[in-house]
Amino acid sequence: MDKLEKPLEVWREELSDEQFQICRLGATERPFSGKYNDSKTPGTYRCVCCGAPLFDSAAKFDSGCGWPSYFQPVSDTAIASLDDFSHGMHRIEVRCARCDAHLGHVFPDGPRPTGLRYCINSASLDLEPHDA
């Protein structure tokens, strides 16, 4: 997958203010406020910035944390991870591997088979429903 890079000014024009704040500046939406938190629609969750496939609805689960949660991405190459030491704690930030959009964080308290919980901002995602 080719890396997609754009200046911040271009991202600011292409995204809503909320999407820009979250995806390009690392903000977080309020818990239980995102449009995909309670979604049960079958489909592929894509990066709102570049359209890369990130998560499949089959990997989505209700973690109760207030953000859409997934136990695995669509592939090992879809997500990039990095250490995040903000807010006085150590977490693992996850980003879109193609365009470096901030998605959320991953935690080691998810269900089988991975034991992971990808806690993702709805504003960083665009759901492409599966054909009925």
From TrEMBL:
Its cofactor is Zn(2+). One of its GO terms (cellular component) is cytoplasm. This is Peptide methionine sulfoxide reductase MsrB. One of its GO terms (biological process) is protein repair. The keyword Nucleus does not apply. It is an enzyme of class 1 (oxidoreductase). The keyword Electron transport does not apply. Zn(2+) binds at residues 47, 50, 96, 99. Keywords: Metal-binding, Oxidoreductase, Zinc. One of its GO terms (molecular function) is zinc ion binding. Pfam families: SelR. Belongs to the MsrB Met sulfoxide reductase family. Its EC number is 1.8.4.12. Binds 1 zinc ion per subunit. The zinc ion is important for the structural integrity of the protein.
